[in-house]
Inverse folding.
């Protein structure tokens, strides 16, 4: 078999016929490695040629049992109601956040009804056994394989006829076809592609754990994310809460998320988010700069507490600090208040937080954010029996939001007597008066003092 030598960049996968010091694609120095590539074209056997044929879309069938249930409702919800057969799923997160724990718990539950395999390239079988005992996992049907060679892994998968496979992690896999160094972009793309192809061809499920970069993105080229069907991110709230979100999902919505709490026995589902996102206080102890808002994410509504603090800006330069709500949203809401309510924020630093550490993207929280900022800036508390929801336009109008009836129902169930939102108020000015009433006369008007 004829072979030719090419040089491949370990950082971006760019190929060059000759070695060069600097990669022309990504600009990395001394990143090229020598690799052998076969020049002989791959020929299909007669059996393979028969299988490769197009079919009419109308002749394609969808099975009734195309999804399997993991036994963990929060995972099934994020994946669109269960795990689709023939799918490849990648889950990324920071080291030590609990990715391996969650996948081991999931694999053990699935092993009760399907043939499951847990592949580890980072731990020995003894270490996995110790972790399973600590977590109280007693599944006798779950099988474990400690291997980093892709060819050996694929051979086991073909012979074992597994329904569900966990790979921990994709960065540890190597194949002689693309060199011997694990974790390079070429290794990631090749190994991910082969495992994805196996899952689709055999109608099986493979879940790959992946490490993330400093920016919180899955390490390696972005093309890896396009190769799989679903990309999940496992986030930490800064406490013992863990949140699973879908950044990509070919079989469901990306608006859903799952909530877990890390305990000694492993990750425990949180089916009632209000139990961790709301701080219960006596009515008289509600401080300024706090409000409750109904958040609509995916298919459920839950209540969270938004907190805000404003202080005079240092050196006269105003800044906004918010990692749970987009800074641009806070900036826009503050500008709307300054324009339409004559309340100055341009000379104050603004701090915004969400209790429980959950990241919010729902536009329906903008009215509540405005009330929280107004309360923080004026020192007037939001009444404890009032809850608000609505989107704000730049003209100060309160716009309709999705599932308004569901938001009102959830608020009523938790004892909130007054709901402020679209249909009740038309503008942010009316919303401020409806919540704070005559107390608005005490608000600082176009001044830099509180």
């Amino acid at each position: 078999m004829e072979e030719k030598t090419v040089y491949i960049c370990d950082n971006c996968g760019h190929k060059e016929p000759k070695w060069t010091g600097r990669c022309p694609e990504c600009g990395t120095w001394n990143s090229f490695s020598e690799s052998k590539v076969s020049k002989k074209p791959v020929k299909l056997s007669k059996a393979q040629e028969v299988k490769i044929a197009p079919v009419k879309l109308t002749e394609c069938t969808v099975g009734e049992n195309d999804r399997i249930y993991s036994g963990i409702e929060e995972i099934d919800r994020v994946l669109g109601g269960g795990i689709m057969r023939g799918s490849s799923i990648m889950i990324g997160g920071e080291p030590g956040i609990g990715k391996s724990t969650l996948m081991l718990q999931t694999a053990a539950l699935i092993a009760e009804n399907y043939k499951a395999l847990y592949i580890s390239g980072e731990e020995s079988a003894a270490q996995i056994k110790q972790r399973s005992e600590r977590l109280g996992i007693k599944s006798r049907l779950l099988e474990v394989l400690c291997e980093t060679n892709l060819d050996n892994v694929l051979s086991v998968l073909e012979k074992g006829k597994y329904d569900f496979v966990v790979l921990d992690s994709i960065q540890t896999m190597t194949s002689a076809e693309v060199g011997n160094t694990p974790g390079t972009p070429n290794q990631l793309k090749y190994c991910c592609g082969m495992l994805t192809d196996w899952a689709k061809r055999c109608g099986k499920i493979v879940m790959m754990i992946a490490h993330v970069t400093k920016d919180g993105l899955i390490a390696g080229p972005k093309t890896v994310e396009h190769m799989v069907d679903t990309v999940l991110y496992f986030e930490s709230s800064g406490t013992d809460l863990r949140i699973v979100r879908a950044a990509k999902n070919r079989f469901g919505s990306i608006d859903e998320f799952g909530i877990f709490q890390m305990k000694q026995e492993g990750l425990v589902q949180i089916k009632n988010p209000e139990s961790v996102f709301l701080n219960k206080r006596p009515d008289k102890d509600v401080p300024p700069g706090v409000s409750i808002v109904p958040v609509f994410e995916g298919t459920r509504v839950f209540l969270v507490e938004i907190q805000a603090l404003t202080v005079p800006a240092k050196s006269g330069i105003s800044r906004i600090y918010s990692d749970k709500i987009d800074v641009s949203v806070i900036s826009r809401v503050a500008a709307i208040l300054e324009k339409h309510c004559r309340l100055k924020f341009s000379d104050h630093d603004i701090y915004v937080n969400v209790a429980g550490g959950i990241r919010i993207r729902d536009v329906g929280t903008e009215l509540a954010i405005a009330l929280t900022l107004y309360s923080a800036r004026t020192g007037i508390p939001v009444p404890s029996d009032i809850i608000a929801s609505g989107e704000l336009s730049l003209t100060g109008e309160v716009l309709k939001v999705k599932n308004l009836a569901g938001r009102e129902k959830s608020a009523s169930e938790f004892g909130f007597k007054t709901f402020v939102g679209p249909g009740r108020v038309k503008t942010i000015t009316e919303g401020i008066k409806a919540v704070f009433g005559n107390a608005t006369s005490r608000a600082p008007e176009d001044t830099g003092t509180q």
